[in-house]
Design brief:
This protein is mainly β. It has a domain of about 100 residues. The protein has a 6-stranded antiparallel β-sheet. It has a two-stranded antiparallel ribbon with strand order 3-4. Strand 6 and strand 7 form a beta hairpin. The radius of gyration is 18 Å and the shape is globular.
Length: about 150
């Protein structure tokens, strides 16, 4: 299997639909100047069900955690999507997200779902551009699709 190249990776964030359901932000411009993007994926909790008669601990599957997204970018306050995501860090509203990893020509995939912006920070350093980071906590299930 060939490796998928990450160029052309984008993230778009927009409003949710009725009843906080996913609503594709495909018509919205991608957030500009992204330098790194990480989606940590699902985690399965485990519930211990060991009884006093057991010699080995026993577990059952618990609730799934849909994971989180971490994004770093070069600050560009002329980018309307960067301004919107900064505002989303304080308004506590759910957002729809659409991440396109790679492109069709490189065998990419999309990840889509809903989440809430849970972190936003700005970093300045000597002889460097200003960068911003934000995180999204995914809520409910997400969808993976080949491009």
């Amino acid at each position: 299997m060939a490796a998928t190249i990450s160029y052309s990776t984008t993230i778009k964030i927009g409003p949710v639909g009725a009843a906080d359901a996913y609503s594709s932000p495909s018509a919205i411009a991608a957030i500009g100047e992204v330098t790194s993007l990480s989606f940590d994926g699902v985690a399965q909790s485990s519930l211990e069900v060991t009884s006093i008669a057991d010699a080995v601990k026993r577990y059952k599957a618990g609730i799934l955690d849909a994971g989180s997204i971490a994004i770093e970018l070069n600050l560009d306050y002329d980018d309307a999507q960067q301004v919107a995501i900064a505002a989303a860090a304080t308004d506590r509203a759910l957002r729809s997200y659409l991440i396109s990893f790679g492109a069709a020509s490189t065998g990419g995939m999309t990840v889509s779902g809903v989440g809430v912006v849970t972190g936003f920070s700005v970093k300045a350093a000597t002889d460097a551009v200003l960068t911003i980071s934000f995180s999204i906590k995914c809520s409910a299930a997400y969808t993976l699709t080949a491009i």
